[in-house]
Amino acid sequence: MGGMAGIPADLTALVGRRTEVAEVRRLLSASRLVTLTGAGGVGKTRVALRTAATVTRAFRDGVCVVELAGLRDPKLLAHTVATALGLVNQSGRATLDVVTGHVRGRRLLLVLDNCEHLVDACARLADTLLRAAPGIRVLTTSRHVLGVTGEQVFVVPPLPTPVPSRRPSVRELLTCPAVELFGRRAAAVLPGFEVTQDNAEAVAQLVQRLDGLPLAIELAAARMRTLTLDEMLARLEDRFALLTLGSRTALPRQRTLRALMDWSHALCTERERALWARVSVFSGGFDLGAAAAVCAADDLPAEALVDVVDGLVEKSVLTRHEHGGRARYRMLETVREYGQDRLAASGTAAAYRRRHRDHYLGLTAQAQAQWFGPEQAAWFTRLRLDHANLRVALDYCLTEPGEAAAGMRLAVTPRHYWITLGSLHEGRHWLDRLLAAERAQSSARATALGTYAYLGVLQGAIEEALPALDEYRAAAEHLEDASALAWARHHQALAAAFRWDLPRAAALFEAAATGHRALGDLGGATECTVKLAIAVWHLGDHDRALALCRECEAVTSAHGESWLRALTLFARGLLQWLGGDRDTTDGLAREAIRLMRPFHDWWDIAMCVELVAWSAEAAGATRRAAHLLGILRSLWETIGGTLSAAPFMAESHQRCEDAVRAALPAGEFDRAVRRGAAFSPAAALAYVLEEAPAPAPPPPRRPAHTGPDAPLTRREREVAGLVALGLSNKEIAASLVIAQRTAENHVERILAKLGFTSRSQVAVWVHEGRRGESASGAP
Ligand SMILES: Nc1ncnc2c1ncn2[C@@H]1O[C@H](COP(=O)(O)OP(=O)(O)OP(=O)(O)O)[C@@H](O)[C@H]1O
Ligand SMILES: [Mg+2]
Question: In what order do the strands lie in the sheet with 109-113?
Fold first, then answer.
């Protein structure tokens, strides 16, 4: 429920592409899987995103964009899609099942961007989802087609360039998209630049030379700061003449771009070239600190780095983005691959990949050291932004011989990273592979094994985890590692608590807390004590349980820590509730939710929302309680879990649900729950915290004139379908090969017959009317 990844905002205005977008939309109306293919940098991603933006209203549940360029491991594909959908799968179910369960019955467009390096995995995933969920459609961009039955392929052409044989006027030239793109980009680096009668011919020649390839045009335009148009043309002519050995035949498109990148590269300073190659080891962007740590060397001093980075931004090699006040830099995939080739050719790739890994090893250790303190949320956010880099570093540890132990350290640092990220599955995925890669016993391996098992316990795989936890403990004893021993007991205690063996759980929590404390591990000790409080309560010692909670509140607040403090507030709210002292529960739970908001730990947030819902019911706010139950329903669904992992809460939940159902008139309960469940994640949290009003009833979904016997002719239904996909009358006319006027008449008649005033009402009607009917097209 972290929120679905929508369409990212454009950094620059889109030039041209009307026809392509209309065509892709048409293909999407006829087929459920459309792949945009074409050379690197030709504009596939831009066309896909624009198409997605224009068909949004045709998809009731929206558009979800999954960026795959930074993903290397096909095994994490389902997980990456889940994350983009806002799912966190904290359960033990296979992530693909959770995704399939989520999209079934939904109407959404899934955009998989940059699939070329994961073609097989993407093909399997698309196939599975399309079969399971008739209401979804998939739009992919890939340099290679997926090869799935029913896939419609659209080859994205370069931008149109001026016809070479004629001498077009400036006016005509400016309507040519390749020229327009060049003009815009050149003006961005050279304010005041315009395409005029004087330079028209040079610009026209240049964009022709570049085959209308947008990325090539961008890179070339960025040189306008230092070169005149004529100089640029002359140099390009030389370079291209060399490549074609003077023959007049054109270069294949991939080679044009390659040549342009070579040229762009050659025009960089020595330092810029070095940095271009070295930063290609990052994935998903980097900040200046990381670039300095990984890429600085004698030939590229750290002090000079800011200028060198600026130089690459000016040359369109890097793009700059702001994240929470910090600048991050990214590269387009094609540009990054070029850098990787250069790095490989220099023979230093291994060294820089290692430095990259070392940097993240250091960063996570630093995060761990400061985790129990006021910087916790900031550290979490920072690591999450670098998640793709953490993956690259983990991957390095798996593929380089002898690095698995370092990988294990990385995968368990900070200790609660996977939990606060809501990604137990991914944590287990890496740990599992690392444990298989390195069998020699060590503290690192013992901790990795223990963490692997512990994440399993949290997913409900308790029986499977028990032997591994025993092994962890034995290893800790054998290695005389006091910290590992405390954690082993801590994890064993939780497993015992989940099996409702409370005396054992309490004894182990006590022992573990003592161990953590003796080592000065306040975080471990506090976490243990909160859980001990819940166990002690159920063993009957209520006073001690509440006293333990207060103790933890004092420690966490003294250290300005948030995540454990939230758990502590939750625990006290729950225990007071169970003891019949219910006035404070709501306030404690809300405070806990506020503290947990920056993290992705939806499991613990859901536990807190339970308390808020029960409190609402008890206070007589029945309708609000029903909305909250709806929010909980979708929360548990996105987590892929149920309350069954917390047996001490299930009964109160049921009692609350029964009471709310009984208090509301028939049908009202279901409606209110549905409304709550339909909230977006952000809106849901705002409602829980009463920062937002009650949900408005959704617009009527099935107007009076509709139904299976709606008075539309076949042709009108067909037109309505295209309207629902967002096609204009002109595009409908083109797609059905009828006159535009005829299309307009159809649309007018549809509106009149249905009593509608807008095309979006038609879209809603189409989707509602077609519900249950499997969508047209393949597969
Ligand atoms: N129509 C356009 N208008 C403006 N800019 C464009 C257009 N098409 C592409 N660009 C720019 O050109 C560059 C390459 O485009 P894009 O990333 O869409 O290509 P791609 O085909 O997806 O490349 P890759 O194969 O590397 O994924 C980007 O910087 C993009 O913003
Ligand atoms: Mg792309």
Answer: 63-67, 109-113, 137-141, 33-37, 151-155
Higher local confidence (pLDDT), 739 or 32: 32
Enter the DSSP assignment of 300.
B
Residue 36 Cα: closest atom of ligand 1: 21
Same domain, 667 and 708: no
765 has a pLDDT exceeding 70 = yes
For residue range 704-727, what is the model confidence (pLDDT) as tens digits?
444 434 578 878 888 888 887 777
Q: Among 383-392, 529-538, 604-613, 674-683, which stretch is predicted with the lowest mean pLDDT?
A: 674-683
Shared-domain flag, residues 262 and 298 = no
Whole-angstrom CA distances from 543 to 550, 572, 649 are 11, 11, 20
Indicate the top mutation candidate among 12, 21, 46 to test ligand 1's pocket, ranked by most ligand atoms within 8 A of CB: 46
Residue 180: nearest ligand to its CA?
Answer: 1
What is the b/e burial string over 412-432, where b = at least 16 CB atoms within 10 angstroms of the residue's CB? Answer: bbbbbbbbbbbbbbbbbbbbe
Ligand 1 atom with the smallest distance to the CA of 69 is 27
Which protein residues have a CB closer than 5 Å to ligand 2 (ion)? 45, 114
Position in ligand 1 atom list of the atom nearest CA 337: 26
Instruction: Assess whether pLDDT exceeds 60 at residue 81.
Output: yes
Q: Are residues 35 and 95 in the same domain?
A: yes
The ligand that comes nearest to the alpha carbon of residue 143 is 1
Residues in contact with ligand 1 by the CB-under-6-Å rule are: 12, 14-17, 38, 40-46, 114, 141, 143, 181, 214-215, 218, 332-334
- Let me know whether 190 and 255 are in one domain: yes
With the C-alpha atoms ordered 87, 93, 99, 102, is the resulting torsion angle positive or negative? negative
For 100-158, how does the pLDDT look when each residue is reduced to its tens digit (9 = 90+)? 988 888 899 999 999 988 999 999 999 999 999 888 999 999 988 888 888 999 999 99
Which pLDDT score, from 0 to 100, does residue 241 have? Answer: 58
**Helix, strand or coil, per DSSP, at residue 620:** coil
Rounded Cα gap, residues 723 and 717, in angstroms:
10
